[in-house]
Write a structure and sequence with these properties.
Layout (H helix, E strand, L loop, with lengths): L10 H9 L35 H22 L4 H4 L3 H6 L6 H22 L11 H11 L2 H14 L4 E7 L5 E7 L10 E7 L6 H4 L3 H8 L5 H13 L5
Antiparallel strand pairs: 1-2, 1-3
């Protein structure tokens, strides 16, 4: 699996960036037809988030990084029929039941699969409407408004040491909370539900932003899909939100 700055040296990515090919995509690793977990296609074109997230990063991030998490998770669970049959969000709450020999692999790759599946869904083309209705009311109540949420969220993302995520969680009563996590950990591991989150691993932003994580965090809000996030908020209150 290509991680951190080493992905800068992927020949195809370097060529695409040099040529300015906005639609560049690295083909995804093939899904294991016998594995229980699958890599879903992106719900939009890899260039759809330009200029805030570039198409080359999206191609590598989805087609290489996320695909590798899925492949590694399926490999680790081969022959573990009972564990492999669990929904991903349930598996992540039962890590103590996973054999110690594969527990770290399942934690890292299962978390990576869940986090990225959520991540692709809650983004969309720039210029969409902001939060409204019940979701906006919850943001105002629990964070003091959208501007304060962005300020607090970006500060938390900037403080993640090394690699990790910053999440907004939601409980069954609709209360929101800010929860950073290291590596590919997720609040799902504690039985919580994620409303949305941002990936602050370097592979999420380094091609475009280099070491300027703060610039990436600020720009990311332009591609937040508040319609999808509002649907997730309603699902959380209804008890139907999964990953």
């Amino acid at each position: 699996m290509i991680e951190r700055r080493t992905f800068l040296f992927t020949a195809g990515a370097a060529t695409a960036v040099a040529a300015g090919l906005g639609s560049f995509v690295i083909p995804a690793l093939a899904n294991d037809p016998d594995g229980p977990f699958k890599l879903a296609p992106l719900p939009y074109d890899p260039a759809a988030l330009e200029p805030h997230i570039d198409a080359a990063t999206m191609g590598i991030h989805h087609g290489k990084h996320h695909a590798a998490y899925v492949k590694n998770l399926n490999t680790a669970l081969a022959g573990k029929t009972e564990l492999a049959s669990l929904p991903l969000e349930t598996l992540l709450t039962k890590l103590n039941d996973v054999p110690e020999a594969i527990r770290t692999t399942v934690r890292n790759n299962g978390g990576g699969h869940a986090n990225h599946t959520m991540f692709w869904q809650i983004m969309g083309a720039p210029g969409g409407p902001g939060p409204d209705g019940d979701l906006k009311a919850a943001i105002d109540r629990d964070f003091g408004g959208m501007e304060k949420l962005q300020e607090t969220f970006n500060a938390a993302g900037g403080k993640v040491f090394g690699s990790g995520w910053v999440f907004v969680t939601v409980d069954k009563d609709g209360k929101l909370a800010l929860e950073p996590r290291p590596n590919q950990d997720t609040p799902l591991m504690e039985g919580k539900r994620v409303l949305f989150g941002n990936d602050v691993w370097e592979h999420a932003y380094y091609l475009k932003y280099q070491n300027k994580r703060a610039d990436y965090l600020k720009a990311w809000w332009n591609v937040a899909n508040w319609k999808v996030i509002a649907d997730r908020y309603a699902a959380a209150k209804a008890g139907t939100l999964t990953i």
